[in-house]
Amino acid sequence: MKTDKQIAEAVKSGRREGQGLMVGRYGQEVFAMIARQVPDTMDAEELTQDTFLKAFAAIDSYDPQRASLGTWLCRIAYRLTLDFLKRRRLFTVSIEDTEVWQTDISDEQLEAELSTGNEERIQRLELLIDSLPPDERLLLTLHYFESRTLEECSFIMDATPHALANRLYRIRKKLYKQLISNYENT
Amino acid sequence: MKTPKDTDLREALRRKYAREPQLPANFTSRMMSQKKRRWLLPASALAIAASVLLLIIFNIEKPQPEQQTPVIAEKGMPPVPVISDEPIEHAKPTKPIKPVKVAKAATPKKRPIEAELPDTLGQGIFESEENVRIAMQILCECEATIRQEKQQTRNYIIEATFNALPQAENALLVTNENGDFEVIEVSEQTAIEI
Questions:
Q1: Can you give the residue range of the structural domain that contains A79?
Q2: Of the ranges A175-179, B72-76, B111-115, which is most confident?
C-alpha cells in the first residue's frame, strides 16, 4: 500500500496512476464531507471533482509534514464548498445571539447538559443541527462525527485551534440555549 | 485542550449522518475522462480567441480602400521617356519602379497634370513628328529613285535585246507617248540621217 508521500510523488510526476490512486483512496471521504453540506448529490459530485482537479494542479504545495493527504484534500474541499454555498446564497453567516453570551454557563455545565442521554434531547439536537450555518455544522461534523482533532480542523478551516475552540463553545452554547427555549415554549 | 464529551450532540450527529452518501462506483473513471474534456474546453476556447484576435489584427493592419493612400503619389510619377538627342549608350538607365499592389485598387487623387509632367514632354512629341515627316520624305525619294532605276534597267534590257536581234536596216527603236518602246521602219535615207 502506497503512502501519502508516494501518492503525492506519483501525482507530481503527472502519472494517471497516481491520480487514480488518490481519487480511489480519498474520493469517498471528500465526497462525504461535501455531501453533508451540499444538499444536491450532483453538486456534491462536481465539487468533489473540482477538489481533486485543484489538488492535482496544486500538488507541489502539499507538505506531508503539515497534514495528511486526506486532511489537505478536505481543506481544499472546505473552501470550495463554502464558495459554492456563497454563490448559491445558501450560506448564512451565523449572527451571534447576544442572549447566548448573556447566558452564564460554564464549560462543565454545558458538557453536562449536552450529555444527558435523553432521547428527546437527542432528537431535538438532530433538528437544531440543521438550522446551523454550514461552517458551524461543518466544525461540529469534523470534530464530533469524524473525530478530527482541533489542530486538524484548524488546518482544514484555516483558523487557529484556539479560535476554533471558542467557536465550538459558542455553538454548543447556542444549541443549549435553543434546547432550553424549546422546552420553555412547550 | 480538553474535548467535551457532549454525548447527546455526538449521538445526534451520528444519527443524522448515519447514511453516509456514497460516491458512485465509476466516479474515478468518469472524472478522469471529464478531466481531459475540461482541459480541452479552455484549449479550444483559447484557440478560437486567438483566431479572432488574429483576424482583428489583420483587419486593422490591412488598409481599407478609403484609407488607402496611393503609394504612387508618394513616390512620384514614373519618369516619362523623353526623346533626347543624346545617343542611347550615354543615356542613364532609369531606376525600375517596384510594382505596388495597392496602387491598382487605390483611386489616386486628381493632381494637376502640368505640375507633374516634365516640360520636355511636348517638345519630344513635336520632335518625333518632325522626324517621322523627314523619314517619310526620305522614303518617298527612295521610292522614286528605285522606280527610276527600275525604268532605266528596263530600257537597257530592251535596247540590248533590240540590238542583239537581227533587224531590218531601216528599223528604229523609239518610245511612244506612253513611254513604251516601239520598233518602226523608216526610209533608208531617214535612217542614215538619224
A1: 4-87
A2: A175-179
